[in-house]
Amino acid sequence: SQQGEEDPQALSIQEGENATMNCSYKTSINNLQWYRQNSGRGLVHLILIRSNEREKHSGRLRVTLDTSKKSSSLLITASRAADTASYFCATAGQYSSASKIIFGSGTRLSIRP
Amino acid sequence: NAGVMQNPRHLVRRRGQEARLRCSPMKGHSHVYWYRQLPEEGLKFMVYLQKENIIDESGMPKERFSAEFPKEGPSILRIQQVVRGDSAAYFCASSPTDRGRPQHFGDGTRLSIL
Asked: What are phi and psi of A81, to 5 degrees?
């Protein structure tokens, strides 16, 4: 299975601090994606990093990818209360011709005011 | 530019009844994916469809579950003879192409079995 696994499962930080979440996966990938899910809602795509990229930024988000370690991290800087949500990594397989993406079990992030 | 629309948002069924969940993908998207999510867990892939074709149903239970995406109209996830264990949130996502592109999600249907 190429399923991503997030670490930690739950994270609680003070507003303004940085939040780091990690994802590990098992097989070769075409790309890795991060999604956010607010309570009771569907997932929202945040950022996609390709297998030949090492780092990518989008606003307060920074994603790194280490294909040799089969791991990725999502950093949210200067956290806000609105960042409270579950965050999922998802991997797209390298060789599948009709590539579905496989989701990890998520990190539940709580931002304390 | 409407997003992925799922209905109903909440569905209550008694054991043995049928549940029909509908998903209208984003305009211009021909690839639809169905996922199941239990509380505090991640999404489990069920089935991937293109118009009139099932591409990958490796995550679908062999019995009672079926999915379709007809030429006209929404994609339907059908669960026959529901049991308590079918209680979950079912999410639909769509994308314009496959190859692992980002998916756009609906807000899900929460199915409760009495």
From this structure: -55, -35
